[in-house]
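Q: Structure tokens for this one, please.
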Amino acid sequence: MALFYDVTKSAGSKQLSGLVRVSEKLGQALSDRLGGELVPVVWHQRRRTFHELDSRTSVDMSPAHHFLTPEVFSSENRPGFYEALSQSGVISAAVFHDAIPYLFPEITWPKSVARHPLYMRNIAGLDCVFSVSGSSQGDLEAFWSEIGVTNRPNLSTITLGANFFDRADSGWTHAPGTMPSIVNVGIIEPRKNQLELLEIACRLWDAGNRFELHFVGRINPHFGKPIAKAIRRAKKAGYAVYLHSKQSDAMLLELYSKAHFTVFNSITEGFGLPVVESLWLGIPCVMRKLPSLDSFVDEISLVSVDSEETLSAKMSEWLSHSNRLARAAEVAVSRSMPTWDRTVDPILEWKAGR
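A: Here is the predicted structure, written as tokens:
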């Protein structure tokens, strides 16, 4: 029987956001395993029906089918959506990414802050919720307890894949140059903490360290402009810092091919895809402590720090001691990382009724 897969937002998106990445990679992995049983669908707001991607033909869902949405929206964003699912009797599930807009409203886009509590309440009415980490699941359960939700869906976790790119592809090799290069990936906004990293980098440059720092991510229209201006001011002042706000996978891979290590000092995450993607390519990473990625930390290839001082110290160490960085790279290359074909195992078990 079919698994209907919601691509309403991601199918038309031109942004390379984490949510789009998850939607695309999850959909591809499900398609590889299910073939024609996976049916991408979009929600037609005016008709208040689901139809197949690139088709005006409505789909008929029944209790014999399954439905999965990896997208984030509330019943106010899509009037009639949840009612249509309920009326069809389809076995429904959602991928839950994080509770960040609810827990950190001061550093989150206002539209997300306004949407998120109702969204988290809405998905409590589905049959199953797959969280992208144990910490995200815990935040969701805590929210439900806070608002008094007692009739809850089945809960499970999935581990997102690191393999956004095939390492065996002959068109890409990791070949860092003589000038150390550091890459930071993430939307330009306060939550990703780029200003902290920029300040650390400026101190290291002023102390005589030679390296390049590349920020990669679109600029948050509400919060990001002051951060982007600070990065550009630093570049104008002569620091080797670069902002790549119109990113593509090809451009990102070009930067990764020359990267000596990556930094991910985000304040909070549902998971943290750039970290595991960096390790997948054999590039060591130093990150701010994130509960969602605790199981990946090995203190050699992925170092978890808890303050600006310890982040600065680790960056300085890797810049100054090439042998330690080389050892970290060796460990990163040899690590076994999660892949998208395994990410979907819990979803397929749910579909099979196990």
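A few notes: The mean pLDDT is 93. The chain has 13 helices and 13 strands.
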